[in-house]
């Protein structure tokens, strides 16, 4: 039977609808009451502990200037790889902080929004093979049949080192790289065009690449498993010069599978990522690049109808169906700390990708048509920021201003044939030439100018910003102002509460087959959020709880029943997603580590006069628990167990994807220089499906998969 929890949560959402913008004011009032004593008495912050802490590792001290003293400027040196985004100081499953959400190194408790970070140790513990697998550790996140990451039921943008893509292939580039080159994966939730650029009001996934370190490391990893899987990688980093001012990193990875779980020809590919970092005094320069080439098979697909999911009983298709992907990425980051305390940073980024797709698409069993698509995409961007810290009386300001310019080109050439009935499930190879052809070229230019003030006053952190975003698509401009406001209050040393009000915008693409009088207005988004962040067990365990409401307004349709069926009509439909989330990660006892999350969301897709689904609920959750023996002859041995589950999900025609739960487990051994992990994904070999509400087809998730991973430092 369908899961129906609307009644349970009715009171929550009735109260939450009144929250809206007043939440920021309410928490601000609470902040004033809590911080008044500290601000008036000019308390000096306690010294930071030597252990990394999401709540106690302060970025800057509270102001101690008197009324007769000149304002002082203080700076935290980041040169030489000290940026917390590098993930080098992450301990176990707990991250130290991030600079992605505020442009400054900020503890998680002082960021007035929900931020979750998947650390390198959690990635390694789960034998995660992709960014898509890694983000399953975050509440409110799922992956649809197109392998697009959804946050709070809206499609997320996937950034690389904070660089925002302008196209779908740019987003794909952020998810396909092997995890050998990834330091951590950050999930920043909510509508925030300041960070994500043109985006849906979901949030962003920021993939942080490994960067050079001053401490030497040489690590070799080899992995084998089900379906003829074989992968190996080498990760080397360390100083080039005796003074350690010049450091390097080189990541090499190769992979080949005989087949995937559906019987299609398996994954194959290679990856190389060199980088150099030079730091001297107050200057840091980082340059790097990536080259990759890979073959990705398609996933088996099931049909979703009024009687539920109808999965194929055997292999259907051609074993060569899939995508050939190759591309590259080069980047350069420069940061300089001036003697007067100002920090200037700039980066340049270029990405290029070619994607060739050959597959069969079916309308209904057994009606298929062959399809090919070639996509050539490129993007380059430059951005710069200037940051300074200034104390004015009791207030400490960290002011950042900057701008960004990006340009992308995407050429899509597609071809297909008319649908045909196939009586033999073993389909012939997709023809190299198909009669029905379409071509589309899209050129985009994006600009962003912003100013942000991060204000410290006793136990209060206030984050206020405004950005002007502009995007031109094939000479059609869209622009919008996007203000953000958030406040975080350190109620105790271990508890912080926060609220925020954020905005996003995204230009609406127009299919070249249709026309509209003038430029389409952008789709706008808004997120209202409040929550609590708790540091437990002496900084070893971190918890975030949030309640949110996100909405998007925009959209268009065609005048299908009028005189001109190609004419575009604006719908201005409002889609609302609201819910509650809980995330916890860290060490809860000696040797015991956990990463767990739960979310409930209620979605209303709006619209009138059609029979499609308007409103539904979704429960998502996962937990991963790992234990390592701490001493004795068996020290280093351990085991881990995890479960990922969700409630049933209806698609747009009210057909239901059933509820499901998948179990993963492993046993492992590790020492200072080596590790060995034997893991099983989908231990119970359950029939699992992607979470998809936009199609009558749903992808099957992998069957039971065994992996043996060995790592040694040399």
Automatic annotation (TrEMBL):
Compartments where found: Cell outer membrane
Transmembrane segments: none
Main location: membrane
CDD domains: ligand_gated_channel
Topology with respect to the bilayer: Multi-pass membrane protein
Organism: Phyllobacterium endophyticum
Keyword match Cell inner membrane: no
Family: Belongs to the TonB-dependent receptor family.
Gene3D superfamilies: TonB-dependent receptor, beta-barrel domain, TonB-dependent receptor, plug domain
Annotated SUPFAM superfamilies: Porins
Protein name: TonB-dependent siderophore receptor
Pfam family, one: TonB_dep_Rec_b-barrel
Domain TonB-dependent receptor plug: 108-204
Key words, A-Z: Cell outer membrane, Ion transport, Iron, Iron transport, Membrane, Signal, TonB box, Transmembrane, Transmembrane beta strand, Transport
InterPro entries, sorted: Beta-barrel_TonB, Beta-barrel_TonB_sf, Plug_dom, Plug_dom_sf, TonB-dep_rcpt-like
Biased composition (Polar residues): 50-67
GO molecular function: siderophore uptake transmembrane transporter activity
One cellular component term from this protein's GO annotations in UniProt: cell outer membrane
